[in-house]
Amino acid sequence: MVVCKKCNVKINTAVNKCPLCHNVLEEDPSFGDFKSNVFPYVESSKSNGVWKKILSIVFLTAIVICTIVDLFVNHGITWSIYVDAGVICISASIILGLMRKYSLSGILFYEFIFICIACYIWDRITGMNNWSLDYVIPSLSIIYIVANFVLRLVFKREFLRYIRNMFVASIVGIICLLLYIYKISNIYIISLISCIMGVFTILCMLALDGKRVFNELGKRLHI
Amino acid sequence: MKKKKWYRLDNTGKIFPPVTNNYDPNVFRISCTLKEEINKELLQKALEKTLIDFPVFNSVLRRGFFWYYIEEVDNIKKVEEEYKVPCDSIHGILYRVVYYKKRISLEVSHCLTDASGATVFMKCLVANYLIFKYDIQNPEEVDNSSTFEKSEDAFKKYYKDFKKHNSGKQKSGYKLKGLEYDDYRLKFIEGEISTSKFIALSKKYNCTATEYLAGLLIKSILLQMTEREKRKPVYLTIPVSLRKEFPTNTTRNFFCAMTVSYKSSGEDTIEEIIESVKKQFELHLQKDNLYRKMSEMIFLENVFICRIVPRAIKDIILRFSFGLTRKVHTMGLSNIGRITIPDCYKDYIEKFSFMTSTDAMHLNTCSFEDKFVFSFSSHFINTEIQKNFIRELISQGIDVTIDTNELEDE
After folding, report:
1. Gap from B67 CA to chain A (nearest CA, Å)
2. Please, which residues 129-188 of chain B have a Cβ atom closer than 8 Å to chain A?
3. Are the beta carbons of B402 and A21 separated by less than 8 Å?
């Protein structure tokens, strides 16, 4: 045990500076001897967030270069606004994918929702032939349902863990067919497949264990 | 397959998930230092036995569409030798049990329980460990409540109605600032003093231990403030366990927070500060006021429109309103008081200590027999407040022994 003569306090930890006044302790018989420490020494992790920082720099550089080139060539902002928006969307999607607080199925869920919304907004803004509702969103719902079945098989987790993902993807699939029926989208076959997949998924879940599915929904949707 | 039990978050627990982040993971730790080194296998066995009586602790936080909820899981976390900074983020199961040399530490997320609830769990864990280790014959029971009582939501039990009360707008307070440690790591300074000497000191000022702690802490903060900064009041946020006024055996959250303020008057003698603190304590701790505070907290939760707002939107609103409450927050002070345990275990226990994560600085205290332990947790490299606090205690004739966690940046 060491005593800081300035603070007049006894220090149990093997340190060479007083934790209170930060003065060097004159006598330090236990220096190097960690026997009396009540906390282990923890080194800081230097690699924290390095990838996020590198990606941010790359994306920011891309945005700045595109904007400058556009300004020099066209004397105004023309095509670069689309490139910048595209870069922002891609970076948002990557950041979402790197979020540690979500599990793999959680990341896939938020990516699915994000890509659907982003594609629809791009489609509206650019006025390009309804491609998001015709192709992208129904295809995504099919891919997403299949991905969840694969995840379930690979990780051998309870199917109830994927209930949110399955239900949302199925409902999106069913909405796709409704959009075709109400003439909002134009491609029949892909909308039909996504709807069949959706209905099939919901029926599968109810057939496997309907009671537990309802219990799980009650839990997740409790008000 | 076994049906998994799930619980709605209690009223206080609802605020924590949206405001939890790497900077303040809202984790607190209760440690028990024994007289001999810890045996890992026996500690694991004791944990498994304890969890039978506290199934609600073996839960994970889940996201529902409207609310978060907690769900019991089957797998039990393994006890580990400590290798992280205390009160580090908790993922998955909402607690962790770690040990280091002679010390067992229970770290829990605030979504699950408060310090009083976790203390009951910790006492049972330590008792079970000691029974295995020393083969204690006819051990006394630490806790007699049923598993149902332990997991009940006491806020719901006592809530009747709500009467609107205008508490008035509070002026924004002094905020602690300064250079911080990297990677959101916290510096802990744990001090040990004699309980009897400390109580005698409080009595000298004719106040309770918590009132004296609050007064001393305000004095320590004022000492390092500039004259310009002293224009702003100092606010201490102090959690109050509601179990005393509203009896319950729940181990889940059942507390409210009171705010004690002090605006510099120039002299700022300790007597003057304690007098002001005492008056505020008296007012806040009246049963009616505690009930009103509790009702205010529960009222919004019971409004149907608020309940049907999706969780993602609730998160944003709660984060924003929590940010507003932080305008009247300088530092936190938690005193869980005297920890008691049956006599047959006392001989094996050195002391208990209590610490929390924080978004700035927090002082936590508890006592066991004649050992009063206080712990400062702080993000700041500057330790003037801790120094002022401890030097003041020493100047009053109290011997202080401190422990700390070593960080690279020092």
Report:
1. 7
2. 182-183, 185, 187-188
3. no
Total-model pTM: 0.87
CA dihedral B165, B154, B361, B99 (to 10 degrees): 180
The residue to which tokens 């002094």 are assigned: B174
Query: Does a structural domain hold residue A111?
Result: no
Residue A206 lies in a domain: yes
List the one residue out of B245, B309, B211, B251 whose CA is nearest residue B108.
B251
CA distance B241 to B12: 12
Mapped onto helix, strand or coil, the DSSP state of residue B268 is coil
Could you report the predicted ipTM of this complex, rounded to two decimals? 0.85
Question: Which segments of chain B belong to CATH 3.30.559.30?
Answer: 169-404
Enter the tokens of residue A199: 């209905």
**A45 in contact with B at a CB cutoff of 8 Å?**
yes
Q: Which residues in chain B are classed under CATH 3.30.559.10?
A: 6-146
Q: Hey, is the C-beta of A23 within 8 angstroms of any chain B C-beta?
A: no
Whether A156 has its CB under 8 Å from any CB of chain B: the answer is: no
Q: Tens digit of pLDDT per residue, chain B (410 long)?
A: 567 789 999 988 999 999 998 889 999 999 999 999 999 999 999 999 999 999 999 999 998 999 999 999 988 889 999 988 899 999 889 999 999 999 999 999 999 999 999 999 999 999 999 999 998 888 888 888 888 888 888 888 887 776 666 666 677 899 999 999 888 889 999 999 999 999 999 999 999 999 999 999 999 999 999 999 999 999 999 999 998 888 888 989 999 999 999 999 888 899 999 999 999 999 999 988 888 888 888 888 888 888 899 999 999 999 998 988 888 899 999 999 999 999 999 999 999 999 999 999 999 999 999 999 999 999 999 999 999 999 999 999 999 999 999 887 66
